[in-house]
Amino acid sequence: MKKTVLIGLIIFLIIIIPISFFGCNYNTLVRLEERVKQAWAQVENQYQRRMDLIPNLIKTVQGAADFERTVLTEVTDARSKAGQMQLKADDLTDPDKFAKFQQAQDQLSSAISRLLVVVERYPELKSNQNFLELQAQLEGTENRISVERKNFNDAVQTYNSKVRSFPINLVAGIFGFKQMEYFKGREGSDRPPDVEFEFNKKEEKK
């Protein structure tokens, strides 16, 4: 009788321990993955907010006499490319897609920065209330983008650490949990944008 009970207990432990191990760690990975996706959704919201502000910004700036068209064209083109480069939550493990998405968004950030530098040469824009409000909204959005990108990177770091840690990495491998990509610092973001004004080009031709 005792032998039967002992065998039953051993069989029970052999079954229940692996189930508990895999179940708990699987649920942990799911929870962390959902946290990353939630953080990504916040990043997307801020990028979309910026996209929505740009048409009004361009419309306002176009009203300034002799405003540098090349700068406006650059912003318009960068916005178009950023809008075409969509990244779904399921693509966060793809380094190529993630890099292209970040590159498109960073190029848009650079184009907007150059436009705001050019505006410094136009007193009528610097005193235009509509422009000032749009500028404040854009600057606030850029700050929120930075915050949400940091939150996203923090969530990814926690998730990736679990995916790589033993013995949870065994569960990750079995169920297909892959490491996700981080946002990286924009190259040249520590330097002011390089702007060449159209009137300078005209002067050079003389």
Protein topology:
Blueprint lengths: L1 H60 L7 H16 L10 H25 L3 H4 L2 H36 L3 H8 L22 H8 L1
Helix pairs in contact: 1-2, 1-5, 1-6, 2-3
Key terms:
7 helices; mainly alpha; de novo design (two linked rop proteins); 206 residues; disordered C terminus
Q: How widely separated are the two ends? A: 107 Å
Helical stretch count? Answer: 7
- Structural domain count: 1
Radius of gyration using CA atoms only: 26 Å
In percent, how helical is the residue content?
Answer: over 70%
Beta content comes to: under 5%
Largest sheet: none
- Assigned CATH class: Mainly Alpha
So, CATH architecture? Answer: Up-down Bundle
The global form is elongated
Element pattern in H and E: HHHHHHH
User: If you consult CATH, what is the topology?
Assistant: de novo design (two linked rop proteins)
Low-pLDDT parts are 188-206
Describe the overall structure:
This protein has 206 residues and is mostly helical. The chain has a single domain, classed as de novo design (two linked rop proteins) (Up-down Bundle). 76% of the residues lie in helices and 0% in strands. It is built from seven helices and no strands. The model is unreliable at 188-206 (pLDDT under 50).
